[in-house]
Amino acid sequence: MHTAAGVEACLPIRSDMDLVWVRQHVRQAAARLGFGLVEQTKLVTAASELARNTLVHGGGGQMEATHLSSGGAQGLRLAFTDEGPGIADLDQALSDGYTSGDGLGMGLSGARRLVHDFDIESTPGDGTTVRVTCWVAQPPRPREEA
Amino acid sequence: MSDAYSRPVPGHVPVLRLGDVLLVTLQGDLHDSTAQQLQQDLAETISRTGVHGVLIDISGVEIVDSFLGRVLAEIAAQAKLLAARTVVAGMRPAVAITLAELGLTLPGLTTALSTEAGMELLSQQTPAYRPRGPRQESP
Questions:
Q1: Which residues form the Histidine kinase/HSP90-like ATPase domain (chain A) (predicted)?
Q2: Edge-to-edge strands, sheet with B110-112
């Protein structure tokens, strides 16, 4: 079990300028926790994809960043929440090449590959929450008991 | 809440002409609207000046997500329709690693490790790709 060391920040996602804030915030938070350059780049890229989904498909929302600590390992969890139309078919939305907009269809499936943990909840008509977690330098850790 | 910040103004990326090549240097964190504006500016400038090459230096770019990747691919595609070749130069290693993992390998893009190598590529008379000429005898 890992403990949440506290919600670091909650950022609104309402415009493409907010996407810039999200990227800058995630980069700074990841650098502070000791993420290497490649890990930082992956996490910021994933955050950018997910924040854009929140903006474009969810009609705007927010990102909550939480610092996690688990047996000495440091992690960063990002939760993207919108109250948009939701995703009717998650399997389809998560498959490579599927796009409902004008992207390359790599947003959701690509972001999933860039992080260690990926979790999505969506209720049609109610909105979508995507949570991703990255750990610094991926120390071996026991699988969590269900 | 974000209204409390002084919002950054979307920038305008300058397009420089160096002989037969348009040179664009991307720096830092680009707004989506800035990238889209650049895409339009480049198409208009190629058409107006008749240059044969576009060199985009992304060595100062910290992340390329699928949006910026798509813009770069579309710039190359539209330049080709306007009889110009595009080279994207100076991609950071961490960006290349991330793009490959993201599944965005951008097969239509010609790349170079530095602006110098990119200029050299564009100054060559022959296309960067081996022309499909008459069949050559194998040695």
A1: 38-138
A2: B15-18, B21-27, B53-60, B85-89, B110-112
